[in-house]
Design goal:
Elements: H1 23-28, E1 34-36, H2 45-53, E2 58-61, H3 67-80, E3 85-90, H4 99-115, H5 133-142, E4 146-150, H6 156-164, E5 168-173, H7 176-184, E6 189-193, E7 199-200, H8 215-225, E8 230-233, H9 239-247, E9 252-255, H10 257-260, H11 269-277, E10 283-286, E11 294-297, H12 300-304, H13 315-329, H14 352-366
Parallel strand pairs: 1-9, 2-3, 3-4, 4-5, 5-6, 6-8, 8-9
Antiparallel strand pairs: 7-11, 10-11
Helix pairs in contact: 2-3, 4-13, 9-14
The structure holds flavin mononucleotide.
Flavin mononucleotide binds near residues 42 and 150.
């Protein structure tokens, strides 16, 4: 993580910038085409409000949250900001768990449960809420400016109801086929998530090796394939990369890892320290934590269980969560998912508003002076 002092930042002249494509800005009601990625508990109301107040779009990750917690968080964002924000939900199907494979996984994890004094490995459960009628009603009554989905999107009829309530709907694609499917289902914008991205991959096509395309290759192909604005995600941490995303056909960017360096992000000290020390080759794509491919910093879990069998997302999480919790309690990182993208060494330790100012100022140096269309 790069520490940036005030003097390293140029005086911001963010009001002068003219983004090459403005469709996404109009759609989302924002000034800067930067979306802070939803990041579960790490991107809480303070970060979301700070990002939205700075003219970008803050995203509240509601995927793992209960309805009550989601409502409280929305209220906190609204108390701190009157600007547009995004609510993110998971649209994954129920896990298909084969009991023989589950027993293999439990046997492999038993050693680590013993090591941490956790007793027997439990039977798998379905540990994350699915997108349901209650969550739909929550959206329809709170009417955020934007709603984004990961791991697929609800059926077209549900998407239509969200749009009728005045929300912009976005979905994550990791292939051109997924992008087309999301557009067909009614998405107003597509988040093209490249392999560099930190955290869980949004891939919703079943099959090994699907959706492992780099941002540089994916974004222009998705931009050619769909009519709606494309948001580039994965490995973007400074203005050079934002300008590159526009050159590839994107209308905006979604950035996760770089926002983990912000003071408003909820990042435990050992995770923050691991981010600070990480180098370019320190991330791994793994299914070991949740069953879904996700990019994390290397640790004992990814090193020792790289070849381990896993069960379907999110049932795998019900087997590994106790390990992460036990480690977190003693400030260890060995078995904790430390989600991070490949641009992690470019993360800066700044308040969110200063990071956005820096990203916008840096972008200006690389962007054409007139809109391209
Ligand atoms: C800590 C962390 C948690 C994440 N959680 C979510 C999530 O809950 N929902 C989601 O749509 N994307 C999630 N993502 C993925 C981001 O949406 C995005 O694709 C990614 O951060 C972009 O790559 P970058 O991290 O290199 O900027 C997460 C990413 C990180 C780093």
């Amino acid at each position: 993580m790069t520490k940036t002092s005030g003097e390293a930042l140029q005086k911001p002249q963010t009001d002068e910038i003219r983004w090459p494509r403005s469709g996404l800005l109009d759609l989302l009601g924002i000034t800067h085409p930067i979306i802070q990625a939803p990041m579960g508990q790490h991107a809480g109301p303070a970060l979301v409000a700070a990002v939205s107040n700075a003219g970008a779009l803050g995203s509240l990750g509601c995927g793992p949250m209960s309805i009550g917690s989601t409502q409280r968080r929305i209220a906190q964002v609204r108390r701190a900001s009157a600007r547009p924000f995004n609510l993110n939900f998971f649209a994954h199907p129920a896990p298909l768990v084969d009991s023989d494979t589950a027993d293999l996984v439990r046997a492999r994890l038993a050693f680590y449960y013993g090591l941490l004094g956790l007793g027997a490995v439990p039977r798998p459960t379905d540990p994350l809420p699915r997108f349901d009628e209650k969550r739909l009603q929550l959206i329809l009554t709170t009417r955020p400016r934007a709603v984004s989905f990961h791991f697929g999107m609800p059926p077209a009829a549900t998407v239509a109801r969200i749009k009728q309530a005045g929300c912009v709907v976005m979905g994550s694609a990791t292939t051109v086929t997924e992008a087309r499917a999301l557009e067909e289902q009614g998405a107003d914008a597509i988040i093209a998530q490249g392999i560099e991205a930190g955290g869980p991959r949004g891939t919703f096509t079943r099959g090994d090796g699907v959706g492992l395309i780099g941002t540089m290759a994916l974004v222009p192909q998705v931009a050619d394939a769909v009519r709606v604005p494309v948001i580039a995600a994965g490995g973007i941490a400074d203005g050079r990369a934002i300008a590159a995303a526009f050159a590839l056909g994107a209308s905006g960017v979604q950035i996760g890892t770089a926002f983990l360096g912000c003071q408003e992000a909820v990042v435990p000290a050992p995770y923050r320290e691991a981010l600070r020390q990480a180098s370019d080759d320190d991330t791994r794509l793994t299914r070991v934590f949740t069953g879904q491919p996700a990019r994390t910093l290397r640790n004992r879990m990814t090193d020792e269980l790289a070849d381990a069998e896993v069960i379907d997302f999110p049932a795998q999480l019900s087997l590994t969560r106790a390990l992460a919790k036990a480690c977190a309690k003693s400030a260890r990182t060995d078995f904790v998912p430390l989600w991070a993208g490949q641009a992690v060494p470019l993360v800066r330790s700044l308040p969110a508003a200063a990071l956005i100012e820096a990203l916008v100022t840096e972008s200006r140096a690389w962007l054409p002076r007139h809109p391209v269309h």
